[in-house]
Amino acid sequence: MRIWKYAMASTILGSALMLGACGGGNATQPGENGEGGSASGSVTGDGSSTVAPILEGIVEEYAGVEPDVQVTVGVSGTGGGFEKFMQGETDFSNASRPIKEEEIASLEEAGIDYTEFLLAYDGLTVVVNKDNDWVEDLTVEDLKKLWVEDGTTKKWSDINPEWPAEEIVFYSPGTSSGTYDYFNEVILEEEELNSAATLSEDDNVLVQGIQGDKNAIGFFGYAYYVANKDTLKAVKIGGVEPNSETIESGEYAPLSRPLFTYASNDSLTENEAAYNFMQYTIENAGEMADAVGYVAAPEAEYEEDMEKLEALKK
To answer: What's the pLDDT at 15?
Structure first.
């Protein structure tokens, strides 16, 4: 598998990913280099924009190995992806949080059995504008005070009187985003998010907003910070900087989290292309996660994923 550091241009990451080609050649098994492929058909996924950089890279590499398989991956947020998954519109659904109990119940009602696959680890990253020279470190308590809706207009000086008495401009993932759900759970403790925040399921909209305003603050997946670190500044949380080491160790708490994809068992057993693509994804998720700025899971996790996939064929 060819791996490189993806630039992740905003116009690419913010849109649906669709790669495929027509052609044939000598049979090549997933994970091997070569011309041609061993599968044909189409595979459809949707879901988390946080997971999108990993899938973008995998889909691009896979197209070179299996040119007769068309893979289409939308980016409508974790919740939006699960909605389509429940309707039977997709073969797999990417998620930046574990599936919720109500989503499990909806899938059961729809008669859709699924398998959860762990792809990588992420550190939800709080960022400010590069020209912000006063915020370096925030506590979890500071984050809650900033982001919770309490009927007031928030200023930087509310956190530290030595900071500017300037109104803060907030950018947040939209309510269909798993990143929103995760932040709401571990930081806001299910209280209402600041109503002044600009919301978007497209992380690139958040990136651009923060880049353009010295008083802006926002949060999204670590890979989006890595791709834009020349124009954004990551804020330490409780004195801990988000990076590969602190995310992998869990030291970057409570904002370290797993990233998943959930696949339809019927698709995996009845659609040769879906099984083939998921096999390739599991084989290469760790390397691609590292390449785009996330953290690979331990090899044992991918071995367990492969065992779960292979068990569906028995």
So the answer is: 37
Question: What pLDDT shows up at residue 87?
Answer: 97
Predicted TM-score (pTM) of this structure: 0.83
Q: Are 49 and 77 in contact (CB under 8 A)?
A: yes
Q: How far is CA 52 from the centre of its chain?
A: 6
Residues 121/257, Cβ–Cβ less than 8 Å: yes
Q: How many CB atoms lie within 10 A of CB 242?
A: 24
**What angle do the packed helices 299-311 and 272-292 form, to 10 degrees?**
170
Decide if 93 contacts 84 (C-beta within 8 A). Answer: yes
Give pLDDT, residue 314: 72
- Residue 16 has a CB neighbour count (10 Å cut-off) of 12
Residue 190: other Cβ atoms inside 10 A: 6
Radius of gyration of the chain from its Cα atoms, rounded to whole angstroms: 20
- Tell me if 279 sits within 8 A of 263, measured CB to CB: no
pLDDT number for residue 14: 37
Task: Look at the block and give the residue holding tokens 């280099």.
Answer: 33
Per DSSP, 126 falls in state E
Q: List alpha helices for 159-271, DSSP H.
A: 178-186, 203-211, 222-227, 244-249, 265-270
Whole-number pLDDT of residue 29: 45
Tokens, residue 258:
């797993």
Say how many residues make up the chain: 314
CA 96 from chain center: how many Å? 5
Phi-psi region of 153 (alpha: psi -120 to 50; beta: other; left: phi over 0): beta
> What per-residue confidence (pLDDT) applies to 8?
37
CB contact set of 50 (below 8 Å; sequence gap of 6+)? 78, 96, 122, 177, 178, 179, 203, 220, 221, 223, 224, 259
Burial class (CB in 10 A: 0-12, 13-18, 19+), 46: buried
List, in sequence order, every residue forming a beta bridge with 257; answer none if it has no partner. Answer: 122
* Residues of the chain with confidence (pLDDT) below 70: 1-37
